[in-house]
Structures
1.
Amino acid sequence: MNLLRRHPIAIALVVLLLATAIHPLSPLVDAVTGSTPGDADLDRPILYVMFAPLSNTLDALTFFSQVRAEWALAVWILALGAWGALRRAATPLTWQRRVVRALIGPGVLLLLGLAAVVLPRPVPRLVTDGVGTVIDYHAHTNASHDGRPGWTLAKLAAWHERQGFAATYVTDHNIVYDGSLPLPEGITISLLPGVEWSVYRQHVVAIGPVEAVPRDSFGESTARMVRIFAAVERQGALSIASLPEYWRNHRDDLGAFVVAGVDGFEIVNCAPKALGFPSDLRHDVIALAGSHDLMVVGASDNHGWGQVTCVWNLSLPGAQGFRTNRVFARPLALVQGDRGGWPWAAAITQPWFMLRSLSWSERASWLTWVVIILLYRAMPRREGQAAGLGILARSLGRSRKTSVPNETPT
Ligand SMILES: [Zn+2]
């Protein structure tokens, strides 16, 4: 009881780590069948597992749909701020000290968010026993207006290579990548030709021997827009309807897409605006694609921000249509659009899903860190000892000018 009273957060975390182990989520899910792929898994670097609490948290921040991210941030900032301001201190606090303490938690949170977007770190890699090519269908470089500055072909290729991809199509906004540019040294994966066309309220990824199209002739109406599918086909290339546009703007036009000759649909796209894609609609689109033998694909839609992909495709040699790919996704990305996944509860459900999808090695790493920090904090300190987190935490609670030796732990 004493332990629970003195370290409530650590004990709560241990209980959560054990409870979520009883209802685990597979670290990888086949987005078409919903089952755990038997022949594919995530290979996590040692450093990733060693610092699993940080690795998993940064991944979980990356796999937020936009609306859930906004809710979670608002709730966490308010909760952390209130906790910092109202927490008991050893000595009475001035209001200035309370404001400073209220800002620490939200500040750390914003730094974590920034780290998720830009901090280079070890990342999981897809490994498969089966035949096939691990491929991405939709990714951007700095040639796109919204690509990260300095995000070159070489950096894009390295980003994919780290995560187990053998190939990616390069699909910048309205700029054809034809693969004819001499590639810089050291690129070990295949960069394949493609483009992402912006047409009437829809983005269309075209892959293969793509050429320029008169984009204006696919504007102004859905009826004109869907003609781009035939135009892409005449080039000998394939067209894929992108997320989130067909979900947001053309939900009732998907039959017309099929009639006009679309070759496939994205069913997972890792961009925050696309991660909210409703699971119900994903099922409908998979059924539609299945009945017309069209491709379904996962898209990192990488723009240079974020270190991890939420989805991989395992493309089977010689396969066509609906059987072209198996689509493997991180479960946290798939649940973003679940029915009943109330966005306002994201502050609680995102950590819950994150903890449920931990592997055993990651769970062991979390528990080890909790024990290390508990032991460290429980260590008795001698008078005048300068270093240590406990001392730091206590010094935040009192004015810097006064010095109180022999203070009891707060
Ligand atoms: Zn894109």
Note: The chain has two domains: 2-120+341-396, 128-337.
2.
Amino acid sequence: MLIDIDKLPKEGLTVNRDFEYPSAELVEEDAVFLKPVHVELIVKKYFDQVQVAGRIATVLRFNCSRCLTPFEYPVDSRFDLIYLPEEIEEIKEELEEEDVNTLYYTAPHLDLREVVLEQLNLTFPLRPLCAENCPGICPVCGVVGRDGTCSCTVPGADPRFQPLKSIMKDKK
Ligand SMILES: [Zn+2]
Ligand SMILES: [Zn+2]
């Protein structure tokens, strides 16, 4: 959906619709769209700056990076971005200003579909987990801990619990 920057109404353009993308466009490998991306945002022009603000919501399926179990990952994210015309980028680079909320458009268009996909990809965790405390796969029997905890005893299987264990030992 190309927005013609020069034709934006003064009060801004309200966009309320769904965008569909092939799952291959997601940065997260193996991630799958379970729903189209619902977009509610406003595109407003201030001189040559374009503000894109609103929210995106969808549901994806990720594979847990620890136990490999697929799980649903709902996204409901708000953002408020400022797009500057591309020429200004060079000036900004000279000033060495860093602002993740300032981006650039190639006049005279802004591709809203791209903007939404970019923002969606930014919401993903570095390592998606089915649960914060996902125990992962048992290194002895290969069973996924969450589904049926196996009876193997794996000393020190999870390095994150090591400090806690040593504290408890000290107390004894
Ligand atoms: Zn998991
Ligand atoms: Zn086991």
Note: The first strand starts at residue 2 and ends at 4.
